[in-house]
Amino acid sequence: MSESETILREAISGGSWPEKRDLEAPNRWVWLAAWPVTAVFILSNAATPLYVLWQRDIGFSKGTLTVIFASYIVGLLGSLLICGVVSDRLGRRRVLLPALGLALAACVIFATASSVAALIVARLFTGVAVGAVVSAGMAAVTDVAGPRRRRLAALLASCSMVFGAGLGPLLAGVLSETLPGPTVTVFAVEAALLVTAVVTVARMPLPRPAAPGAGSWIRLPRVPHGSGSQLAQGISVFAPGITATSFVLSLGPSLLSGLLGSSSRSVAGAMAFVMFLAATGVQFAVRRLSRRTILVAGAAGTTVGMVALVAAVHAASAPALVAAALLAGAGQGMGQLGGLSLLNSSVPPERLAEANAALNVGGYLLAGVLPVSAGYLSDAIGLTAATTVFATVLMALAVAGGAGVITTRRTAHRSRTRSS
């Protein structure tokens, strides 16, 4: 056995990467490390096309639907308070394996759900699992990639998230309309995918974590001193982007059904898929641009997407709704890539999972509040008016985020010019 193979085997079994050695994991492991993120994010949105079935069988309003969606946000945010710090101190594997176990439990609950309470519990478990992978899972991709491949790691981690988020509703929509036992079949397939993710995490060549740091194990995630500006810029664009896609996921099927006369689960799933396909594709397209240019473009995408959303609901236009979904996906994708890339460039590996958690806390807080508010508002004043209010508020936030990034870039440029 070669020396490199021996070292890789030690890393897989829990050993550390040797110090002062220029050794990197093979390229295939950088890609494989992103698979657990994809698998969990497939689950995160797999329920989207199925809500119309549960609404018919169980009976609940659009407001209740957004509460079910928000229970996912609650689980995710609670997970982020813990998983980033624990992952940095104890290792990625010790966070990811229990999270995948919770994701498998969520599949069982979804498959057998007969009440709103069951759906809330399943979404809560899903949120906890997602919180673990957006902190520990994305950091694991960076760990495996090593310092030389950090930009690739940010791209793969971000794309694995949005691609999985889009693939979930597409698979759920198609499987639920073509095979018997729609909810059981969908989550049986997802459980099988999660088992492969467990195997991947168990064999992943991860470095041993640094010695546990000081401070509470449960705390609001934060970044090291000097990285606050990068975090703020990432959140200012990522938060409106992921809020826009969250709205499409939670109320998109209702828009299709109530305004456009389509109750097809495949169509609802396909719309979510193309939204996240846009989020994936745009990241590969802009990956060579500067990080702050990517963020400004992301803010612009979200802004124009909200204009298209207002046009869609007022004109009952399917093409405008699809355009709004595509632009929302592009806005989230670029906001996410720009934010992760800024953190990867400024935060040391021993704090990276916590930094990723901080970015996602900022994004998902807004994504939890605004769509739920829009859901209940739609029960009171109608879906068209509520969507218009939601889009206007989010448009203002996206414009402010893009303007903030531009201002920060100009200030930094002036400072460099004076110092030179």
TrEMBL record:
* Residue stretches spanning the membrane: 29-52, 64-83, 95-114, 120-141, 153-172, 184-202, 237-260, 266-286, 293-315, 321-343, 355-377, 383-406
Pfam families named among the record's database cross-references: MFS_1
Q: Where in the cell is it found?
A: Cell membrane
> Per the record's keyword annotation, is Membrane included, yes or no?
yes
Gene Ontology molecular function, alphabetical = transmembrane transporter activity
**Which CDD domains does the record match to this protein?**
MFS (cd06174)
Extract the PROSITE patterns matched here.
MFS
The identity of this protein, by name, is Predicted arabinose efflux permease, MFS family
Q: Give the organism the record lists.
A: Nonomuraea jiangxiensis
